[in-house]
Write a structure and sequence with these properties.
2 domains; Quinone Oxidoreductase, Chain A, domain 1; six-stranded parallel sheet; Rossmann fold
């Protein structure tokens, strides 16, 4: 089979590799039907995730069809169409029992494209198949559910839920890439009074308005806009959706006293925590890896037509066009890429 293989910082290729085999009785082998590229894959290619070693197949967001399963898999069967969670769950450890699958102690957590081979491939081995995959409802397309592998649960859980967004809040979202726009969609479920989307790129600000932002401004305009909407207090919740020091620090400047900063972005460099000004303002700061425990809820919302993730897709490719898809996604400033969808030829 062929797959996207990481060969060290800045190096990747579409290679011929061995097909995956069952390694544990709780594994399944899945034919990858649809897959996408995540901003985290770009962080890996920059060298920001040193645990990813050369030779690793990349990718952690996919929908596929079960073609084989181990003797310990009871709820997934050959022919099942499944969503693969970006986070695997053993289902038995302390953290899995708490729904904190991202912290799994039994061999799960974020492993696809990180600690084991990922899903940007024609076939993938899926550990803990019963507890780490979700059946795709009849009548729902791959494209409608694929963004539940990662970006929507990440924004919902780490941004909106952990950030304690409530009805009537003013929410400032710093970064209008896929995660920021996902946070915008997820925030709308809680009826905020206003959502301010902040990004230096005009095309991203335009996208934010299409996704439902009340205001979309540049970083230079952010403080004045938030003050205007909050009588000078600051945002109730500021969501960091980029992963660079400047955006985190901007969130801490925009948030009101007793407000909440929810850091969602993946940081590759240290960011300054200005405790000298934050400590007295009762600001809560949260961060974390997604657990994907919200996938069943989000699946119901998609099935009911409450959210429609298809609008995230800006470019479509065949799976064997993966290198072109990476170039398009990595140069989003020029291509206007938000999410790229790669699909197995029919």
């Amino acid at each position: 089979m062929r797959a996207v293989v990481y060969h060290g910082p800045g190096e990747k290729s579409w290679d011929e590799v061995p097909e995956p085999k069952l390694e544990a009785d709780t594994d399944a082998i899945v034919r990858v039907d649809s897959v996408t590229i995540c901003g985290t894959d770009l962080h890996i290619l920059k060298g920001d995730v040193p645990e990813v070693t050369p030779g690793r197949i990349l990718g952690h967001e996919a929908v596929g069809t079960v073609i084989e399963s181990g003797t310990g898999v009871h709820d997934r069967h050959e022919g099942d169409r499944v969503l693969l969670s970006c986070v695997s769950a053993c289902g038995h450890c302390r953290f899995c029992r708490e729904g904190r699958f991202g912290q799994c102690l039994g061999g799960g957590g974020w492993i696809f494209g990180h600690l084991i081979d990922g899903v940007q491939a024609e076939y993938a081995r899926v550990p803990f198949a019963d507890t780490s995959t979700y059946l795709v409802p009849d009548g729902v397309s791959d494209e409608q559910v694929i963004y539940l592998s990662d970006i929507l649960p990440t924004a919902y859980e780490v941004g909106v839920v952990a950030g304690s967004v409530r009805p009537g809040d003013v929410v400032a979202i710093v970064g209008c890439g896929p995660i920021g726009l996902s946070a915008l969609v997820a925030s709308s479920l809680y009826s905020p009074a206003a959502v301010v989307a902040i990004d230096p790129v005009a095309s991203r600000r335009e996208l934010a308005l299409k996704f439902g932002a009340d205001r979309a401004v540049s970083p230079e305009e952010a403080a004045d806009t938030v003050r205007e909407l909050t009588a000078g207090l600051g945002a109730d919740v500021a969501i960091e959706a980029v992963g660079v020091p400047e955006t985190f620090e901007l969130c801490t400047e925009l948030v009101r006293p007793a407000g909440h900063v929810a850091n969602v972005g993946v940081h590759g460099k240290p960011a300054t925590l200005h405790l000298e000004t934050l400590w007295i303002r009762d600001v809560t700061i949260t961060m974390g890896l997604v657990d994907t425990s919200s996938i069943p809820t989000l699946l119901r919302l998609i099935s009911a037509g409450r959210i429609d993730p298809v609008s995230f897709t800006t470019h479509r490719f065949r799976l064997d066009q993966a290198m072109e898809a990476y170039d398009t996604f990595a140069n989003a400033g020029d291509t206007g890429a938000l999410k790229v969808l790669l699909q197995r030829p029919s």
